[in-house]
Structure formats: structure tokens, C-alpha cells
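Each field is listed here:
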Amino acid sequence: MVKRNREEATLQTQLIKALPAMLPRGAFFFAVPNGGKRGKIEAANLKRQGVRAGVPDIIIIHHGKAYGLELKSPKGTISDSQEEVFPLLRAAGMPIEIIRSLDDAMTAIGEFFRRPFSFSETRSAA
């Protein structure tokens, strides 16, 4: 489990660095820091404050629409809370894609924004 979390953290760090070059002008993104271990008191406080388990790792907003990227290691699976929350978010109009690599992210973003591009284009724009 630790190795998978490390793989996901590494992917997230790489993706956060690449996203500015991958997204259309005017898009805004942020990471949702729901992962990690928390004590029971802190977890209860966060829950009372509206923190929800199961939301995607990265949220992108562009022209009033939200998109979700859920990062997983090559063998990672979505959690029970994600199984519950993702359909609700999709029903509310948020596309969500499971991302296992930068190539997956480029494909998803290309589909989200109907803007195909290559990895070399992303690297040169970074």
C-alpha cells in the first residue's frame, strides 16, 4: 500500500507540474488533499466542515464546468467512497477520469476540452 501511495504521489507531482501546459487558457485547477492519515478528532472536525471522502484528486474548472482526475497506481482501484461519490458527481455533470500516467492525463484532457495534443507539445510548452 505504501508503494502505491508513493506511485500516486509521484504521478500527482508530475501532473501538477505539467498541467499548466496541458490545459486551455483560463482553466483553473487544484488538488484535493483528502488522502493521508488523520487522527479521529481531526477527521471528525474535517467531516463537520464539509470535507467529503471519495472526491477526485484533482479538480479542473473551465468556463463554469468542473472536471475530475482521479490518480491511481497501475494496479490501484477506486475506493468504496469513490464508488459511491463518482456516480453522483457524474450525474451532476462532472466528467471524471481515472489517471495512471501522464499519457492518460493528456488523453483525458484532450477529451475534456476536445483539444488533442502530443506529449512533445506539452513538454515544449512547459
Remarks:
- Residues 2-125 form a domain with the Trna Endonuclease; Chain: A, domain 1 fold (CATH 3.40.1350.10).
- Strands lie at 28-31, 58-62, 65-71, 96-99.
